[in-house]
Design goal:
The protein contains 7 helices and 10 strands. It has helices spanning 41-48, 74-78, 96-106, 111-124, 140-152, 170-185, 197-200; strands spanning 2-10, 16-25, 30-34, 56-61, 64-65, 81-84, 158-162, 189-193, 206-211, 214-220. The strands form 2 sheets. Strands 6-7-8-3-9-10 form a 6-stranded mixed β-sheet, with helices on both faces. Strands 2-1-4-5 form a 4-stranded antiparallel β-sheet, with helices on one face.
């Protein structure tokens, strides 16, 4: 599903943010990416989402070497990925419902085909009564939950999430992790970057840890 081979990443003439990172995410796996702020977690996720190329090394996504894949092919690859950004990236002129439904509309589905699914998902993340609200009227935690719902609504092949529970309370956080686990059970490969040890505890999932841009620890969490 995802393969990094000796990947390095630097911005401009600065020091490398990622150094010789090598790993494989198998299809259907569930993985936590951990590390302190500045360790390189967000940069690693940006490379997977093709937002920028690595400075060196090889990134393979869905068996495609991204270094030789045409940029015109990137949109089709991105449609197979659900992404939860730290800054949410909601469209301000759309309601909560319309933001979540956007990936389905772009895929050509009609509203009567997905309306119930979107409403049920928004209810699951605790926003059943805010479906018609615009992002500007919502709290940061509510916007985060909309972003998560949008990322998972189309059941992507790969889900990557950057601190998805950073703006929600513990109860909602546990509900969201159950949502990710269910999506994974249905076949989605999941990679979650987080500082939240409570989120990781109790999950039988692989953990990859970044320290100063290097992948120094890989292990499996036990319940």
């Amino acid at each position: 599903m995802v393969r990094f081979e000796n990947v390095g990443m630097r911005y401009g003439a600065g020091p490398e943010v990622l150094r010789d990172v090598t790993f494989v995410l198998e299809a259907g796996s569930f993985t936590f990416l951990t590390g302190l702020s500045g360790a390189g977690k967000t940069t690693l996720l940006r490379l997977i989402d093709m937002m920028q190329p690595p400075s060196r090394g090889l990134v393979t996504l869905f068996s495609r070497d991204l270094s030789v894949t045409k940029r015109s092919e990137f949109p089709a690859l991105r449609r197979r990925i659900g992404v939860v950004f730290q800054d949410f990236r909601l469209l301000p002129h759309l309601s909560a419902f319309d933001n979540v439904a956007l990936p389905l509309r772009l895929a050509g589905r009609r509203e009567n085909e997905y309306e119930q699914d979107v409403e049920e998902l928004l209810s699951w993340v605790g926003l059943g009564d805010r479906m018609r609200a615009k992002p500007a009227t919502l709290s940061g935690g509510e916007q985060q939950r909309i972003a998560i719902a949008r990322a998972v609504v189309a059941r992507p092949d790969l889900l990557i999430a950057d601190e998805p529970t950073g703006n929600v309370d513990a109860e909602i956080g546990q509900r969201l992790i159950r949502l990710f686990a269910e999506l994974n059970r249905l076949g989605t490969t999941v990679l979650i970057a987080t500082h939240d040890r409570a989120l990781i505890e109790g999950m039988r999932a692989r953990e990859m840890r970044l320290v100063d841009g290097r992948l120094v620890e890989m292990r499996t969490q036990r319940p």
